[in-house]
Amino acid sequence: VEQGFVVVHKPTNWEVDAGSHNNAGSEASSASRRSRPLPLSSFLQDLFPESSILHDAAAGCGFLGRLDAQSSGLVLCALSYEAHLLLQLRQDTHAVSREYVVLCHGHVPTELKEVNAPIRAEPGMSSRVDTATGMPAVTWLRPIAWLVRADTAEKYSLVVLSILTGRKHQIRTHLAHVGHPVVCDGRYGPQKLEADLRWCPRNFLHRFRLEWPELPLAGTEVSKSRHQVREHLPDDLRQVLRASGLRPWRAGCAISAEALDAWAEGAAPLANFDAWAEVSFD
Asked: Which parts of the sequence belong to the Pseudouridine synthase RsuA/RluA-like domain (predicted)?
């Protein structure tokens, strides 16, 4: 708070919104509003009533980047316009690290280390890879476990990812583009959704780490220090790893077994992306 921003751990069914809920709706739409995800901006407005940027839709209510309502993880939010400007500059110049863990379909090849595919995103529509009109989008990925489900023999991968850019639904779009949609992603993997929902309650996507440089706010000395916040998988996704029949893709694959157990028990190292060693599952 001293530097003018906070990091929030967003649970599922909370929306990183832009304050649109503040616009009065009709009485007839009240039921539909109650069924929508909860607005994260309202939660922060209650905590920090003196912060005007949290009410400013033009400034995105202070949020730096987005997380889908059915995803979970860490979100940066500025409490002042100065902090928002400085954080946005750091993010636009790729000085903010954003790292995720997902469970996706299929065995992601270990040699697939980067997806560099332009994404076209339009309001109210799904994003898509479009080499002609899309905006640059780069996702780095590292599979850390190859898994199967005991009852179906379906293949899955536990993957750590980092993004250079932050396009709408970037990770979900890129993984679907390379044939490995996120588990329970009805938008980008609809053909898998019905089966996925039998054992996983929502998108298996969690932002577990944020890192950023210290901000040179007025009256403070410039520092080269960097700060990070890390957050283990929430209970619902840990339960998926523990109780859904997932196991290493073959007996004796210690690498997959160790990664599965660590994330399921909240003991994963949550290291920066470069620290995750490249592994071989052979």
From this structure: 5-177
pLDDT at 28: 38
Strands 14-15 and 38-39: parallel
Q: Give the residue from 92, 90, 88 showing the smallest Cα distance to 77.
A: 88
In the chain, where does the domain assigned CATH 3.30.70 lie?
1-93
Q: What is the pLDDT of residue 224?
A: 77
- Which pLDDT score is estimated for 13? 94
Q: Which CATH architecture has domain 1-93?
A: 2-Layer Sandwich (3.30)
What pLDDT score was predicted for residue 31? 46
Q: Is 68 a catalytic residue?
A: yes
Candidates 17, 68, 185, 196; catalytic one: 68
User: Whole-angstrom Cα distance, residue 190 to residue 168?
Assistant: 18
pLDDT under 70: residue ranges of the chain: 1-2, 19-35, 217-222
Type of residue numbered 40? L
Helix spans in the chain (H): 30-35, 40-47, 81-92, 170-177, 190-196, 235-243, 254-264
What letter does residue 61 receive in the DSSP assignment? G
Spatial distance between the Cα atoms of 38 and 30, rounded to a whole number of angstroms: 13
Fold of the domain spanning 96-212+229-282:
Pseudouridine synthase (3.30.2350)
Cβ-contact 202, 70 below 8 angstroms: yes
User: Which residues are 162's β-sheet partners?
Assistant: 99, 140
Contact between residue 23 and residue 33 where contact means Cβ atoms under 8 Å apart: no
pTM of the entire structure? 0.92
Question: What are phi and psi for residue 238, nearest 5 degrees?
Answer: -65, -35
Every domain of the chain with CATH number 3.30.2350.10 lies at: 96-212+229-282
Question: Is the C-alpha dihedral spanning 59, 61, 64, 68 positive or negative?
Answer: negative
